[in-house]
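=== RUN LOG ===
request id: a7f3
mode: sequence -> structure
chains: 1
length: 472
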Amino acid sequence: MSRFRFNHSRGSRNFLIGGVAIIVLAFGAAQPLTAQYFGKNKVQWTSLNWHATVTEHFIVNHDEQMHAAAQRTTQLLERCYARFSSILDTKFKKPIPVFIWQTHDLFQENWIVGDLISEGTGGITETLGGFRRMILPLDVTTEETEHVLCHELVHEFQAEIFLESVERGSSPRQIGNELSRALWFVEGMAEYLSKGSVDPRTHTVMRDGLEVGYLRSIEKMSKTPDYLSAYRFGEALLWYIGNRYGDAGIGALLKRSTEVGVFRSFAWANIDPDSLSAEWQAFVDSTYRPQIEAFIHPNEATGVRRVTNHEFADPHKGQIPVTFNGPALSPNGKHIVYISDKSSTLSGTDNFWLASTDSADAIKKIVETGRSAGTEAARQLTSVGAFSFDGTRFVYAVQSKGRRAVRIYSFAESKDEAFSIEDEVLRESLFGIENPRFSPDGTQIVFTGVKEGQRDLYVATIDSARGLLTEN
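=== RESULT ===
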């Protein structure tokens, strides 16, 4: 029995914490180890009533509040299907099951996937003995939702082609080994085709990789199947291949790769991988070098200063990079609150830190997720906190009892206990609360929330009264 799994990553930590391989090929259906010992089982906080919306190529499963979101989802999927079916010259033999959730919190609770799901996982595509399904939340922007849906759909087409090759006699183990050595090809293809171009995040990584010196050849990407190689470098390289040889050529390479392997498929197309790699790197240099030379670098001369200390980590030496996200600057400019996983006592947890802008050293850890009361997780990839206009309070959205809550902290820089919980606004009828902000007079908080699969802005007074602010 063959099993392929594709995880769409929203950030680099998903790759490093969630596992080394984005595509898993296994035999048998053993329960994942992450769900087999105490303390690693999922808690389901919410009971959902499921419905299905069916189209020619998809069966979209959703809770009863998401009928409108499901209609939008099917429209996006069918539009992407038409494009990818042409590029990859493949059609589905039967409709693909798709499971969608209103928010990432609900997505993480699901038991369809036995593994624990990290914040950085934006979607999952699985094939198990020919059974297929796409699994993803819809709590991001419309643009990002379309990207994730189309990214996962590319994986469905890849799975269709892989399984067709197996039916013709190819070895599932051989295909899995080939894919494990060429994640840049599989994930880079999904990223490029789902966007049609190179996104700003990849542009940033390409510039940095060129400047710092970790830009990789195709051979090195195949030997280091980490997040950068699989997603960012892979996307940029597949964009280059698509623009040079045509997107249909990518589909031809994919079909051939399931029979002879990725590198031999390039030889079949009269493309030398080493020459292609050198030409691509030369293109990267000519594209990004002028931008790098025009950068304002952090140093005393430019007046730009780095306030956190980081070290480059090599995942193949067991090193996991420390992350710093969600910075919020105090009104007087003296303090920063940020989220980081440095010095975490629990693997994969993020903590809130208070730092001075005059020093690169953190003053203290103010909230430890996973251990602090009612603070199960911080959403460092999608949410940012804020100080009040007078600098005496700080507000952030945390995960509490399986749902998002707006938590208000009192802040006094002269006290040892600078942060203390003042109030909490827990919205039982809302999901996905993010990015809260104080009103100028400090009496209200505005934040984003999800209801019935629709993201809107909401405003809450400090005494927890709520009203709808806008609809989008």
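=== NOTES ===
Residues 240 and 424 are 49 Å apart (CA to CA).
The longest strand covers residues 403-411.
=== END ===
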